[in-house]
Amino acid sequence: MKPTSRPIGYWLRHLHNLIEARFEAALAEDRLGRRHWQTLTLLHEEPRTDAQVREALLPFGADQGATLDDLTGRGWVARDADGRLALTGAGRDAYPRVAARVQAARDLLMTGLTTEQYVSTVEVLATMAGNLEARPPNE
After folding, report:
1. Which residues of the chain have pLDDT under 70?
2. What span, in angstroms and rounded, lies between the C-alpha atoms of 41 and 30?
3. How far apart are CA 38 and CA 99, in angstroms?
4. What is the count of structural domains for the chain?
5. Is the CA virtual torsion 38, 39, 42, 43 positive or negative?
6. Would 25 be classed as within a structural domain?
7. 67: domain CATH number?
8. Are 22 and 108 in contact (CB under 8 A)?
């Protein structure tokens, strides 16, 4: 069966499910989910306010409260002197270990693709989304 014999919606959903499963497996060793990873990455970049974390994760439907509670309970996240959320020493130690497994999953996803092909694919998908966002569904 040729890949083009199935519609784009099939491939988008199928790929989404495969990515979710692969990342779940990569994060399972530390009993983390993708929202944990996204939160750790945000805080690895720099400390953030609660509002900044919520805004950054909003598109993913993340339950920041439960995720932050879990990361705090692990001792990986705490509030800094300014009241912002930040990685603790334990969180900074855990980050590279988790990041290596996430990178391995990303490398597998990109096998056989160039960076240009990836960028082109993302641009095409963003254009398609923009086309549909520009018109209400009832038009």
Report:
1. 62, 64
2. 15
3. 11
4. 1
5. negative
6. yes
7. 1.10.10.10
8. yes
